[in-house]
Specification:
Two copies of one chain form a homodimer. The first copy, chain A, contains 13 helices and 27 strands. With 636 residues, chain A is α+β, with helices and mostly antiparallel strands. In chain A, helix 3 runs parallel beside helix 5, helix 5 packs antiparallel against helix 6 and helix 7 packs antiparallel against helix 8.
């Protein structure tokens, strides 16, 4: 392991900048500190308990014991959930030294290791007695996908704690993949990208260029239509319609598209492939400009869990899978590390607060899978022992048949520190704002900082320098939305603000304007025409039926952006009107020839709450985009 | 067969009114005459050729020969396509006496009969050597669904031509179902409703109450959660979530919901079950009021081919399957026959012109499966030998993997006459307007009428009485949209208009106003807020990129309903403006804090064309609901 590689999820060799090691920032409560603490005390254990209960971990024991062949619990990709939890446990141990996390990781590693075949193949669903053959179904088998997550878990362990048994298992699995799918092997690719990013990062972590080369091969092979369609899903579903370097925009299954893009950036950076890198930058830009929700969520369609077309952004049927939020940040982070461009970090903040933070329940034991921006019907609560298919219905579910989101959330929260700041020579750049202490290795020595803030509830961020080497420079990100920000009282325009000449004992205060503000969608987003939303700092707000008088229906509420908009806690209060439409003529279509008739409108106020907290007070109807009064009946 | 049963798809015994027999109206060209002629000369043969080519018909031969067990062409429900084509051929022969249709029917009947098992079971996918067991997978096996379509084909043959081999095959198949699933048999239901309507109509056609009773059992068993979920689809998908008589609205897979409702009406009418009947009426009303598109299309979601929630009517992702249009008319027709309520026929007209007529290409050899109301990206043409999965992409496809729509269209067009008028004692009611001659049996004798009209291009309908018995009365439907209609110069309000005292040699003229008119959606339909559509008579119009100057993009076009709206052919011309939005800041989300900046708007005119003809001039972007200028940027 190269000496200076940080204990962080993404660490390209020789990059101009790096993220924090997970142990370089200790959070003191606050927004992310509390979420991370809940991950520590609840979610990690919760995931382990569910996978033990359902037999997903025991699949490894059955494989080790030669007892395969009966009905196997879990989908064909359930091994990957175990690996994602292991990745989370590795970061957790690296960040906190948790003995529990270390022991849980080690115990799982023993069971995983025992299930590995002599030639390095490792999968509990294929290739053993009574199972389908290895790699017989590359389109939907997910075998290389699972291996990719194994490699990411090994990378976390290696960087956070050092070489161990799982790293050895991963090495043998990666060698197996290189033999099987290398230049001399079969020309296959996996229906679900992930092996690419796993191999690339594992190659970096071990300094092993063969793995990067294998990742490169998988990237180059993709987009040539070699995967057979799965039922009604076509080649674009798994990005086999166009080579990565030829595509202009993301399409198909969002998580697949984004994992592939992350792997492509890794390969492009490590091989100096400017064309491949530019392709992903171009895809990112167009997808952000035309296929991304206000929350940062990606994926407009339930049908294929996929991106829609340009401007196809329905709030109600937004899929916005939690995993796609995780994957979007994987891509943006890599692009930022390579370019230093603030746009990537701006999007990450939006996605952190409005997709990733929305998923877990307050107790960390239930999760959103889909993250729609509009819910018409309040969902029923679920029992703590209840499994949902994918929980699309406005309720956080304890677990899922396809349970990718909880463990993805767990590994992201366990390593959140890495994305909070970047190191470039002797310059430290704060990217995300959270109260805590940093102790960060710079080129000339270690800097120690204390950050005090209640962000995003308030906008003041005070950074005190406890110790700093000569030549230390501090940069702070001024988010795109923060018009009117100041640094020590002087205007700071969105982008980067430099706090010059800070030595030990000095401090600086960034003030970000977090008053609520109205936001309108592009006119071409048909699904929210005539609507506006309210944001507050990095938070997207929403209206919930919970906050309406019982006689009002959310569907009848209209707002007027000309009325005052006041901040309330971390939410806002808006003036609203509501008028119940006149009863329809029975059995007639909901289309008419004149203005819609309504009862007398009533006026009132409505509290808007941060989107990430919606449905925490029970099932509710909810909307982010609120229809503007008078904008709706075009015939007058 | 009761003496007075008409050769018509739906014939409840002892009903107050009946539809026309297929041979009681001869169309003379015109809108429906031409569509029917294309069905006769092209679509029927086209369907037969494709099923021969793909081996779907040969599946019956293999079953007869005991040669099952290898790879079987077609989905598990492909038998039903053969039966639907046979139903179409039976109506075709009954209507026209076509020797070709008769021969084609008879040849298929021989092959089908040969595949029937000794005990009456008939299915080419299950129960034979190398196949899964009979009824082992009721949720997705579609065996009873296929049998239901067999019974409908037999009903058509019986009513149109008389008893024959297929009727005997169907009788044995129905008896098998009654033994297997009767009161003493297993408590199962089929994942895809259809057996109910097939049994009920077959029972009517044969005067056999056992079949009606079996249909009743299937209806009553449904909604009790006995079907296992299919992957991520829940009980509502196949209407097994709630008993039919307890449901308030349609939900889940639209075709399944509607076939079930049609069967429930038949059972309710034949058993005098007022509660069951009222339940379907209630479901129809709420679904029409809140879950139906302007086109009459039903089914808002691709994911489950299903209804969405109330007000969930996205134009772009509208599924509006052609089959759901067929099925919606099956339900509405049954409700009309039982009640005489004009609302049901009004919806049928809308669905005929804007869903069913939209499906076929001009040459009758390609079909829309989904019928969205908004297409953002022009689709590529398909080759005549190309099979599509479901062709959701704005192009009519020659055939489909799941090819339910072409044969459903074929049987509907072959029997269109039945829905054009109703007979009640000595009263004839014209329901749909088309040029042609009627010769209809009334209680007191036969009436002969000549209808001259270019409807829907123009609104004048002239009915001449060629011969009529004493006591003859003529009623004409005045459509819901026809404000300002006149009958012989006197105002005729929407509903029924009575042309009194018409004897031989007299005539009457109904004048329906078909000037184009603006239509606005209910304020609660979020997906088309701030938009308006143009209708013209029964036709929904649309804007196609084909009619725009090449430098204009449809996504930038805005309309102003205050400007003049002129009729042009069977379309309209509207004033439009278009302003290209200012280029977005690269890599920034499509949401802003002020009005959207655009270039200088240009003004012009745009021809709107009937929706049913869209994409006939090549792939196009298209929209029915047009954004109203000034209604879109809520922040000013």
């Amino acid at each position: 392991m190269p000496d200076k590689t940080p204990a962080a999820p993404v660490a390209p060799e020789g990059a101009a900048r790096r993220g924090l090691a997970v142990d370089e920032l200790r959070l003191d409560g606050g927004f992310w500190g509390r979420l991370q603490e809940t991950n520590t005390t609840a979610t990690l254990r919760h995931c382990l308990e569910w996978m033990e209960r359902l037999g997903w971990t025991a699949n490894f024991d059955r494989t080790a014991d030669g007892a395969t062949g009966g009905a196997r619990p879990g989908w064909q990709f359930s091994d990957s959930e175990v690996y994602k939890l292991m990745e989370a446990l590795a970061w957790e141990h690296g960040r906190t030294g948790s003995a529990w996390a270390d022991a849980a990781f080690t115990a799982l590693a023993e069971r995983v290791a025992a299930a590995q075949d002599a030639d390095g193949y490792l999968n509990t669903c294929y290739g053993h007695a009574g199972q389908a053959d290895r790699y017989a179904d590359l389109a939907s088998g997910h075998e290389l996908y699972c291996t990719g997550h194994l490699l990411q878990a090994a990378v976390a362990r290696l960087r956070a704690s050092g070489d161990d048994k799982l790293v050895e298992v991963a090495r043998r699995a990666a060698d197996h993949v290189c033999r099987e799918f290398g230049p001399e092997g079969r020309e296959g690719i996996c229906g679900h990208p992930e092996i690419e990013v796993g191999l690339a990062e594992f190659g970096r972590a071990l300094g092993e260029p063969r793995y990067t080369e294998q990742a490169r091969l998988f990237i180059e092979r993709r987009g040539r239509g070699t995967l057979p369609p799965i039922a009604l899903l076509d080649a674009a579903y798994f990005q086999d319609d166009l080579p990565v370097r030829e595509a202009d925009v993301w399409r198909g299954h969002a998580v697949r598209a984004l994992y592939l893009a992350a792997g492509a950036v890794d390969v492009a950076v490590d091989t100096g492939d400017a064309g491949l890198f530019a392709a992903v930058e171009r895809q990112w830009a167009r997808s952000v400009e035309r296929r991304t929700y206000l929350t940062g969520g990606m994926g407009s369609r339930h049908q294929d869990e996929g991106f829609g077309e340009d401007w196809e952004l329905p709030p109600d049927r937004a899929y916005c899978e939690t995993c796609a939020g995780v994957a979007s940040n994987m891509v943006s982070w890599r692009l930022f590390l390579a370019t230093g461009d603030v746009r990537y970090v701006d999007l990450m903040e939006r996605t952190f607060y409005n997709v990733i933070a929305a998923s877990p329940s307050e107790d960390g034991r239930a999760f959103f899978y889909a993250n729609p921006l509009h819910q018409r019907t309040a969902a029923n609560a679920m029992r703590p022992d209840e499994v949902n298919a994918r929980a699309e219905g406005g309720v956080r579910a304890p677990w899922f048949d396809v349970s990718c989101c909880p463990t993805n959330l767990a590994r992201t929260l366990a390593s959140w520190q890495s994305y909070a700041a970047a190191v470039e020579g002797d310059t430290l750049t704060l990217l995300q704002y959270a109260a805590g202490e940093l102790e960060v290795r710079l080129d000339s020595g270690t800097v120690r900082l204390r950050v005090d803030t209640e962000y995003p509830r308030t906008g003041a961020v005070r950074v005190a320098v406890l110790a700093a080497p000569d030549g230390f420079a501090l940069r702070l990100r001024v988010p795109h939305w923060a018009d009117g920000a100041t640094l020590d009282g002087r205007p700071a325009v969105p982008g980067w603000a430099l706090a010059a000449g800070l030595g030990s004992g000095s401090s600086t205060v960034l003030d970000l304007p977090v008053d609520p503000r109205w936001t309108r969608p592009d006119d071409r987003i048909d699904a929210v025409r005539g609507c506006a939303a309210v944001e507050r700092g990095p938070l997207v707000l929403c209206a919930e039926s919970t906050d309406l008088p019982p006689e009002w229906r959310l569907e009848d509420v209209r707002v007027d952006p000309a009325l005052p908009l006041a901040g309330t806690g971390d939410g806002a209060t808006v003036g609203i009107t509501a008028a119940a439409p006149a009863p329809a003529e029975p059995g007639r279509l909901p289309y008419g020839s004149g203005p819609q008739e309504t009862g007398a409108p009533v006026a009132g106020e409505l509290r808007l709450v941060p989107y990430h907290r919606w449905a925490r007070r029970g099932g509710s109807s909810m909307r982010v985009f609120l229809p503007v009064a008078g904008a709706v009946s075009p015939l007058r």
